[in-house]
Amino acid sequence: MHGLLYFPSLHPALSHGLVPGVRFLDPGLADSGAGPWLRPEGLPLIGDELAGMLRGFDRLRREVKNPKDLALLAGASGGHFFADTSFAVREAFADQEHPERVGARRAKSAQLALCLAYMVEESLLELAGTGELDVRFATAMAESLGLGDDDSDEELATALAGVGDMLPAAALADEFRPPWRQVLSPFWAVAPEGAGLFVVDPDMAATLLDAGLPFAEPSAPELAGWFPDGRPERPLLAACATGWRTLGKTRPDPDAPWLDAPRPIVIPKP
Predict the structure, then answer these.
(1) Which domain of life is it from (predicted)?
(2) 212's torsion region: left (phi>0), alpha (psi -120 to 50) or beta?
(3) Are 58 and 29 in contact (CB under 8 A)?
C-alpha cells in the first residue's frame, strides 16, 4: 500500500497545502530522508548513470533564467535526448531486432522526463527565493491589463501593488511549471503500482471533474487507508481511472502501456 502522492507538484514548497500521510514522488533526485518523498524501488537509472544523463540539462537550467524557457526546454526533450539523430535511428533498428529492449528504454525515458520536471521546479524555487518569479508574474499581469512601456511608473505601481504578496509560491509556480498533462504520463510510469494521485491544484481538479471521471465520495475504509493520521477537514471526492482517460484520451496509448493501469485520484470537493 503506497497511499497517495501529490500531483503535479514534486516539491512541498510548491504544493497547495500539505496533508499528513500524503507524499511526493521522488524520481531519484531528492535527498534521502530530507522530506516526505517516496522513491520507488527498482528505478532504471540511479547514481552516477542518472547524474550523467542529466548533466547537460542541469547546466542549461542554471544558465537559463526565464522560467518559461525552462519548462519549454524540459518539454521539448521529454526524456528523449537523442531524438532526430543517427543514434535514434540505430536505436530504432535495435528495438526491431530486440523488442525486449523497448520496455526498459521507455522506463528510462519516463524517469528522465520526470527528473526534468523535478529540476524545473528546483529552478522555480531558486527564482522564487530571489523574487524573480514575482517580478515576471507582475509583468505578465501588466500585459494582460493592457499596461506597457507607454504607461507611467505610477500607473504600473498602482495596478501591480501587492501582486506578489497576494499569491503563494505554489500559485506563482503554476504559471511557469510544465503543464500537468505533460508530466502525467512519466509520473504514472514511475509511481509505484497502486499509488494514487492527490490533486490539490484547483484548476486541474476542476478539469478532471469536468472531464466526467467517475468521482464520488470515498468510503470510510478508503479514507482510513489513504490518511492513517486522520483525513483532511475538507470534503473529498475520489475516482479510479486509467492514465489515458485522465489525460482526456478516448483509447489506450500503445506507446505508453503503463497508462492502462487504473489509479485512485483524489480531489477536494468543490
Answers:
(1) Bacteria
(2) left
(3) no
Interhelix angle for 100-130 vs 132-144, to 10°? 90
The confidence score (pLDDT) of residue 167 equals 47
**DSSP annotation of 257:** G
The one-letter amino acid at 217: E
Query: CB 206: neighbour CB atoms within 10 A?
Result: 13
b/e string for 34-45 if b means 16 or more Cβ within 10 A?
eebbbbbeebbb
User: First CA to last CA across the chain, in angstroms?
Assistant: 27
Domains of the chain, residue spans? 4-130+174-268
Q: Which helix (H) or strand (E) holds 25?
A: strand 24-25
Residue pair 12/18 in contact (Cβ under 8 Å)? The answer is yes
> DSSP letters along 67-81, please?
HHHHHHHHHHHTT-T
Which residue type, as a one-letter code, is found at position 48? D
Q: Are 269 and 229 in contact (CB under 8 A)?
A: no
How crowded is residue 118: how many other Cβ atoms within 10 Å of its Cβ? 21
Question: Do 2 and 38 meet the contact criterion of CB atoms below 8 Å apart?
Answer: yes
pLDDT tens digit string along 201-223? Answer: 888 999 999 999 999 999 999 99
Nearest to 1 by CA among 261, 190, 222, 216: 222
Task: Quote the pTM value.
Answer: 0.79
H-helix or E-strand spanning residue 240? strand 236-242
